[in-house]
Amino acid sequence: MVREIKDLALRQLAEGGPPALSVSAIAKALGVSGPALYRYFAGRDALLGALIVDAYDDLADALTAAGSMIAAERSSATAASAATKFLASLTPEQRAQATFPFEGDERTHWHFIPTEQFPRKGLTVKEMNESQRKLAHELLKAGLSQRGYMTASSIMELESVLVAIEAAQRAKAAQPPAATPLVRDHERYFFSVFGTPSAKETWGWRVEGHHVSLHFTVVNGGVLTASPSFFGSNPAEVREGPKKGLRILGIEEDAARALLESLDASQKTTAIINATAPGDMLTMNNLKIEPLSPTGITAGSLNDKQRDLLMKLIDVYTGFMAPEVAADRLAKLKKAGVDKIGFAWAGETERGKKHYYRVQGPTFLVEYDNTQNDGNHVHSVWRDFDGDFGRDLLREHLKSVAH
């Protein structure tokens, strides 16, 4: 009713200005008595005041959007500068390894598993000298927040922990495994640039290796997009050695558990979609994904505290990205409707046991799986249904260009 009242009032204002605003005329148009409207607004002045507040909010949103666009362009320019400096530092041979056309299949060739199982192209950190490595990391920083950069760097460093764990496991085995051990190397991460870095043109870059797969796209020098974005951690929790207790992606589990534990019994029945967790993320490295079913419990069924916990969980994932990317993700999901966002859990609820969850809205999907290595190996990803690899922006850009 409130929306209908406001719509009619706006129509009156458009036709005759403030003098034309009539509560009785609105009541007549809605087929109700005049006093019935006073349940929603104390009078004509209260209704006019509410419309002014709405207009102010719309203006604030427009200014925020404009500010975000300016910030996004600034972020894109920073990324272009970082990429240009990185490429300029390379030898011709290195540049040939690190650069690819923007068009083509290589840009969407992605995975998060070890390179022996999924051959990659690009220039590895191992193949760079110290100054080149610093410039490569500046490029990585251009797309991430400080927390995101520290998370990516820590996952890379975790390879050194994993190699020690697996060596100890082989040493203890009654019969050594016949297969050749996978290479665990914190310098085996590939940097790739697609197209020519520019503050005005379309280009992109990728940083990828075991448990890190980050994809950044700049369209027409504008908004920087960053999906798919994948982080993994093996082990999820280091349980022995000098780094005992380290949980690089612990915040992803803790925020989800806080939401799950806030639900009452009836809500948990809706949210927990399966007593057994799937063996991995359902979407894996699929190029095109569709919404998953069931949705679980939606934000519209949560109380204020629970909705806040849901948004905090989403913030964990948006917060890995550069502020402009995070703001763009939040703006899109809010525009599509927060009430439509669902949270679903599968598997056991006890800590240390195998579990899975997803957060899904009309525009995006977050998947988190911790089932491998007996529930101590995390895979997590942010996907955009229409915007992975900048597809939505590229489509809009092509529409705006004369052919």
Can I get a quick summary?
By secondary structure, the chain is of the alpha+beta class. Helices cover 45% and strands 15% of the residues.
List the helices and strands and how they pair.
Elements: H1 2-16, H2 23-30, H3 34-37, H4 44-88, H5 92-98, E1 99-100, E2 123-124, H6 130-143, H7 146-172, E3 190-194, E4 203-209, E5 212-218, E6 224-225, E7 229-233, H8 250-262, H9 265-271, E8 272-274, E9 297-298, H10 304-318, H11 323-336, E10 342-347, E11 355-360, E12 364-370, H12 372-375, E13 378-384, H13 391-400
Parallel strand pairs: 1-3, 8-10
Antiparallel strand pairs: 2-3, 3-4, 4-5, 5-6, 5-7, 7-13, 9-10, 10-11, 11-12, 12-13
Helix pairs in contact: 1-2, 4-6, 4-11, 8-10
Question: How would you sum up this structure, described in words?
Answer:
This protein has 403 residues and is an alpha+beta fold. The protein folds into two domains: 2-63, Homeodomain-like (Arc Repressor Mutant, subunit A, Orthogonal Bundle); 64-400, no CATH class. It is built from 13 helices and 13 strands. The chain has helices at 2-16, 23-30, 34-37, 44-88, 92-98, 130-143, 146-172, 250-262, 265-271, 304-318, 323-336, 372-375, 391-400, and strands at residues 99-100, 123-124, 190-194, 203-209, 212-218, 224-225, 229-233, 272-274, 297-298, 342-347, 355-360, 364-370, 378-384. Strands 1, 2, 3, 4, 5, 6, 7, 8, 9, 10, 11, 12 and 13 form a 13-stranded mixed sheet that branches. A hairpin with an 8-residue loop joins β3 and β4 (203-209). α4 packs antiparallel against α6 and α8 runs antiparallel to α10 (304-318). The longest helix has 45 residues, at 44-88. Mean pLDDT is 90; it is low at 56-70.
